[in-house]
């Protein structure tokens, strides 16, 4: 492929201190110079809005087994780990149709809009309790005080999980999230494989317990979900529950912490939201656009994929740069890099992906974002940063590991 007319070709390189602090200038360079990027590491990357949107809706595979031999496949062999995917490959986000269609239909019978909306009073109560503690402390790490525990507690209570080692569950889900990172690091892959096995066993015990102790909760509803005689097997059920913890929880942490940080760094928009609280729903959409909780998604080509004159061959691993696409000037306009809470088309962001793999928990994340960020802004007019942000070191799930604030 051709390279841009400059001394050094632009290559996706996230392994710099500047990238973790602010990856968006690098994303902008990729969009301008190599929007269809064949990386020397053996994968492709798309970063323009229209290209990423089309890829998300294309119906391409998400199953790792279709990746052709190359650096990613070789790394698993060299690490000595199995080629069995996370959660036995049974989670919704890891399945293609018709398996995906069947699983999503069954899960959607329990994970309904009614069940999600019914959680709002409990979410408000949890937020109020967290903000009471923050007010008493005066200065806190917002990740530990609010952004991390809120979504974890919400999904646990919504599922009706039995008494479990929550600290261990949190650690395992956090480790497993590294499986969505574009890495060939042997130690990381081994840690992910171990966490995957332990998490599957831990959630499996909870599912077995719930079969004997049914209640009015999501886990009982998932166990009972049925469609023309079809139901989730034990392993399928375990995979979906673990997915709800892993995918839903970690991403909402980034929404709450990243959204708050964006407002603190844009005081005019923070004031606008404080003066216009009814703006909160659109504000959450713009915060999702401005700093997406998931920076990259992936697809695998089953046949030649054509984009902007390029032919991406079958078996190729493609990274869809959601975060970069969400700031593409050719779609959002010249102010794409700016936070503007009144942006009329903010909801067209790609933060929740698209197509058949559009985020199952998007509605729940929106409620948590609306309640938590809205109440935080309303309650603490003197909210401010109280030190440097520490980042989590992840690429696809980049977010704050520590966000010190003063109220």
Instruction: Give the total of domains.
Output: 1
**Any idea what the shape is?**
globular
CATH fold name, please? Cytochrome p450
Total strands: 13
CATH class: Mainly Alpha
**Rg for CA atoms:** 21 Å
Mean pLDDT: 91
**Poorly predicted runs:** 1-6
Strand content: 5-15%
Number of helices: 18
The CATH architecture term is Orthogonal Bundle
The CATH superfamily label reads: Cytochrome P450
Helix content: 40-55%
* Helix/strand structural class: alpha+beta
Outline the biggest β-sheet. Answer: 4 strands, mixed
Biggest sheet strand line-up = 1-2-9-6
Ends: how far apart? 52 Å
Keywords: Heme, Iron, Metal-binding, Monooxygenase, Oxidoreductase
Family: Belongs to the cytochrome P450 family.
Organism: Streptomyces bingchenggensis (strain BCW-1)
Protein name: Cytochrome P450
Can you summarize this structure?
The protein has helices spanning 17-21, 24-33, 49-56, 71-79, 99-108, 113-117, 120-137, 142-147, 149-159, 166-176, 186-212, 218-224, 234-264, 267-275, 280-290, 322-325, 329-332, 362-379, and strands at 36-38, 44-46, 139-141, 226-227, 230-231, 296-300, 305-307, 310-312, 317-321, 384-385, 390-391, 400-402, 404-406.
